[in-house]
Amino acid sequence: MPRRRRTQRSAPKQGVFSRASVLANAKTMEPAAWWSTYGRHLPLLSAYAPRILVQPCAASAAERNWSIYGQIRSAQRSRMKHAVADKLVYAHEALHLEQKMQDAGWAADIERWESDTDSDGSDEEVDFTEGSNLSGTQVLALCM
């Protein structure tokens, strides 16, 4: 008769992680703090676990991206390729982040170049800030 291997469920719990106090603290402590307290004896995992466990677990960013993706790739734009829609979602999020930062008082530190090696020699400068007041819809229209 062949020997049966014990499965994980039927194996007796052993080690630090089987103690009642450790299991109780796992439900009440922050994950990174719990790991730094009880996982010290596992040096290989201890190097990565706190970094992984401090990351927030929420789907709100993904939900926001899918919502924007749904607005961009609607029934009228069903022939749009996936890569183009991805780029438009990225552009939308970048513009949204820039607007939030400007609303909070952030301004980009822009330094003017003293010389322009690509210049054609004329003193005439082109002002690219004229079109910066485009709405998100206008920017999307230009991208298509």
Question: Would you spell out the secondary-structure blueprint of this structure?
Answer:
Layout: H1 20-28, H2 31-38, H3 43-46, H4 49-53, H5 60-72, H6 82-103, H7 136-143
Helix pairs in contact: 5-6
Describe the fold and architecture.
With 144 residues, the chain is mostly helical. Among the domains are: 16-53, no CATH class; 58-106 and 137-144. It contains 7 helices and no strands. It has helices at 20-28, 31-38, 43-46, 49-53, 60-72, 82-103, 136-143. The chain is elongated, with a radius of gyration of 28 Å. It starts with 19 loop residues before the first helix and ends with a helix. The model has no long low-confidence stretch (mean pLDDT 75).
Record field, number of beta strands: 0
Any idea what the radius of gyration is? Answer: 28 Å
Helix/strand-derived category reads mainly alpha
> What is the residue-averaged pLDDT?
75
Give the low-pLDDT segments. Answer: none
Keyword list:
about 140 residues; mainly alpha
Compose a concise summary of this entry.
The chain has helices spanning 20-28, 31-38, 43-46, 49-53, 60-72, 82-103, 136-143.
